[in-house]
Amino acid sequence: MSINPLMELASAKRIASLPSDAKAALDDLLGELSAHADRLAEHSWRRRKGPMAAYWRAVAVYARHTKRLCRMEHKMCRCGDWFVGLPSQSDCDLCRAWDRIGAIPANRKEP
User: Fold this and answer.
1) DSSP letter, residue 85
2) pLDDT tens-place string over residues 37-92
3) In sequence order, which ranges of 1-111 are alpha helices (DSSP H)?
4) Are residues 18 and 67 in the same domain?
5) From CA 61, how far away is CA 37, in angstroms rounded?
6) Are both 61 and 13 inside the same structural domain?
7) Over the stretch 8-17, which tens digit does the pLDDT of each residue have?
């Protein structure tokens, strides 16, 4: 399971197929939304409006989660399968699971 719950959604992976200028515009929008929601959460907290502070904090967190989806790209795993992941990911979910249990599947190519 990913720390970003949106990464688990099948429809979120379509963002990797968007043109780079569309991803950049979406990234900017979500960055602004996150910063604005953080400011509103702090303002609400100072005014002792706890439920509104929690709401705006949640908006900020999900805006950041969605913003990270804009960095996703199509990649090829060492096993030869294509997957959608962040630039820091080098293996698909299945190969990472194999690594956790210490086994190597027959079709996996070692570097």
Assistant:
1) E
2) 999 999 999 999 999 999 999 999 999 999 988 887 777 777 777 677 766 777 77
3) 20-46, 50-69, 93-101
4) yes
5) 9
6) yes
7) 787 887 887 8
